[in-house]
């Protein structure tokens, strides 16, 4: 579950004292300006920014780069993975753009956090698109492991990031 990987398990004090913040496709200085103040750091100057065109591919490279015998890793991911691996603790902050890959992304994120937590303390924080949706997102993550766009049926919970998009409803 996401809780076992480090999501939604940290206290506010834990999040405040992380040695590295990794911003994955988000700009909290613009969207959540008080977050940096809460974390006690200038997020624009004191964070590792990851904003690749394919977040799922990026997570896979970062996981692979974290392995001891990994070879032929693109330089940008090898450098980022080295910085992340050297940090004794950290916080990965991601937003809705990184969830477009659906369940494969969620799985890859959990595996990456699990790997990071083998020797260090890492957490993940989902930045919801609107402040009034944060409670819903946190409840859904806590109960289902997915941040939204869920369909509940007899077979269980189905996660689909495209489930309620207007284009899909019109088709």
Summarize the structure.
With 171 residues, the protein is α/β, with parallel strands linked by helices.
Q: How many DSSP E strands? A: 6
What proportion strand?
A: 15-25%
Number of helices: 9
What does the main sheet amount to?
4 strands, parallel
Q: What order do the helices and strands follow?
A: HHEHHEHHEHEHEEH
Outline type: globular
User: What integer is the average pLDDT?
Assistant: 76
Q: Helical residue percent?
A: 40-55%
Q: Rg, please? A: 16 Å
Low-confidence stretches: 1-8, 161-171
Distance linking N and C termini: 34 Å
SS-derived structural category: alpha/beta
Task: List the keywords.
171 residues, alpha/beta, four-stranded parallel β-sheet, 9 helices, globular, disordered C terminus
Describe the fold and architecture.
This protein has 171 residues and is α/β, with parallel strands linked by helices. Helices cover 42% and strands 16% of the residues. It is built from nine helices and six strands; from the N terminus they run H-H-E-H-H-E-H-H-E-H-E-H-E-E-H. The strands form two sheets. A four-stranded parallel sheet has the order 2-1-3-4, with helices on one face. It is globular. The relative contact order is 0.17. The N terminus and C terminus are likely disordered.
Task: Summarize the helices and strands and which ones pair or pack.
Elements: H1 2-5, H2 12-16, E1 20-24, H3 28-31, H4 34-39, E2 48-50, H5 55-65, H6 75-86, E3 89-94, H7 103-116, E4 121-126, H8 134-144, E5 150-153, E6 156-159, H9 166-170
Parallel strand pairs: 1-2, 1-3, 3-4
Antiparallel strand pairs: 5-6
Helix pairs in contact: 5-6, 5-7
